[in-house]
Design a protein that fits this description.
The protein is mainly alpha-helical. The protein has helices at residues 17-48, 65-93, 99-131, 136-144, 149-185, 187-192, 194-212, 214-226. Belongs to the mitochondrial carrier (TC 2.A.29) family.
Length: 227
C-alpha cells in the first residue's frame, strides 16, 4: 500500500499589531470625520457646482452619506497603512532621509493607493450631493451608463490625485511639524494631553492645506459632476 503524503496548509500569518492598529485607527478616524463634517462638505460641493443652496435643502445635507461612509473605511485604512508602512521602509533603508522628504514621499504613496479605493465612492457621493437624490443605485446607474466610462474614471482619478497629493503632503507635513514644535515649546501640555495637542495641530494643518488647494478641489468636483 503506497503512502500518500499529507500536505498541511500553511497557517495564515497574522498582521503585525502596529499594522492592524493603523488599519483600525485610520478607518475609524475617517468615518468619524466624514460623518461630522458631511453637511459642510455637501454645501461646499454645491457651491463648487454653482448651485444655490437654500434652507429648504437642509434635509438633503446628508445625501450621499452612505457611499461616503462605506468608502471611507477601506480608503482611510489603506491610506494610514501605506503612510506608516512607507515611513517605516524609508527610515530603515534610507537612514539619512530628511523628515521633510520622509513625510512627503510617504503621504504621496499613501494617497495614490487610497484614491484608487476612494474614487468610485467619491463620484457617487458628489453626484448625490448635487442632485439631492437619496438613491445610491440610481446614482451608480447614471455613472455606469455614461459614454466613455473608463476615460471618465481615468481623468477623474488623475484630477483627484493632483488635488489630494498636494493637500495631504501639506497637511501631514504641517501636522508633523506642528506636533514637534508643540513638544519643544509646550512640552508639559503636549505630554499631558497628547490627543488634544494632535487634534489642534491637525486642525491647523488641515485648514491651511484646504485653503491652499481649493482651486484644484473645485476642478476635481466639476470634473466629477459635469463630465
Amino acid at each position: 500500500m503506497s503512502h500518500v503524503p499529507v500536505f498541511m496548509a500553511p497557517r495564515a500569518t497574522p498582521l503585525p499589531p502596529a499594522l492592524t492598529e493603523n488599519l483600525v485607527t485610520g478607518a475609524l478616524s475617517g468615518v468619524a470625520v466624514d460623518a461630522v463634517l458631511y453637511p459642510i462638505d455637501s454645501i461646499k460641493t454645491n457651491a463648487q457646482a454653482k448651485k444655490a443652496f437654500s434652507f429648504s435643502d437642509i434635509k438633503k445635507l446628508y445625501s450621499g452619506i452612505l457611499p461616503t461612509l462605506v468608502g471611507t473605511v477601506p480608503a482611510s485604512a489603506v491610506f494610514y497603512c501605506f503612510y506608516e508602512l512607507s515611513k517605516k521602509l524609508l527610515t530603515e533603508n534610507r537612514e539619512n532621509i530628511s523628515k521633510t522628504n520622509l513625510y512627503l514621499i510617504s503621504t504621496s504613496v499613501a494617497e495614490v493607493t487610497a484614491c484608487a479605493v476612494r474614487l468610485p465612492f467619491e463620484i457617487v457621493k458628489q453626484k448625490m450631493q448635487v442632485s439631492g437624490s437619496s438613491s445610491v443605485m440610481s446614482a451608480i446607474y447614471d455613472v455606469t451608463q455614461r459614454e466613455g466610462l473608463m476615460s471618465f474614471l481615468g481623468k477623474s482619478y488623475f484630477v483627484m490625485i493632483v488635488r489630494e497629493i498636494p493637500f495631504d503632503c501639506i497637511q501631514y507635513f504641517l501636522w508633523e511639524t506642528f506636533k514637534e514644535k508643540a513638544k519643544r515649546d509646550f512640552g508639559k501640555f503636549s505630554k499631558k494631553y497628547p490627543s488634544i495637542t494632535s487634534a489642534i495641530c491637525g486642525g491647523l494643518a488641515g485648514g491651511i492645506a484646504g485653503f491652499l488647494t481649493t482651486p484644484m478641489d473645485v476642478i476635481k468636483s466639476r470634473q466629477i459632476i459635469y463630465v
